[in-house]
Amino acid sequence: MTKKTDKESSSREPSGWTGPAAIAGAAIGSAALAAALLYSSRRKERAEAAKPKPPIDPIETD
């Protein structure tokens, strides 16, 4: 039977923090995307609300 060297065992096993770091990165990315979508939709609603509404009865001029 052969013994495993440090290089062989370390290349196959994760270091222990890469999994949680990947999960944290995905969570941060998802939160950033959600915030961007909420911000853009809010800006769109404000822009539509700021548009002047046309008068219901047009003003008659001579």
Description:
The structure is a single chain. With 62 residues, this protein is mainly α. Helices cover 65% and strands 0% of the residues. The protein has 2 helices and no strands. The protein starts with 5 loop residues before the first helix and ends in a 12-residue tail after the last helix. The model has no long low-confidence stretch (mean pLDDT 78).
How much of the sequence lies in strands comes to under 5%
Record field, number of beta strands? 0
Distance between the termini: 106 Å
Radius of gyration: 29 Å
Structural class: mainly alpha
Largest sheet descriptor:
none
Count the DSSP helices. 2
Query: How much helical structure, as a percent, in the residues?
Result: 55-70%
Q: Please provide the ordered H/E string of secondary-structure elements.
A: HH
Shape: rod-shaped
Low-confidence region ranges: none
Question: Would you tell me the overall average pLDDT?
Answer: 78
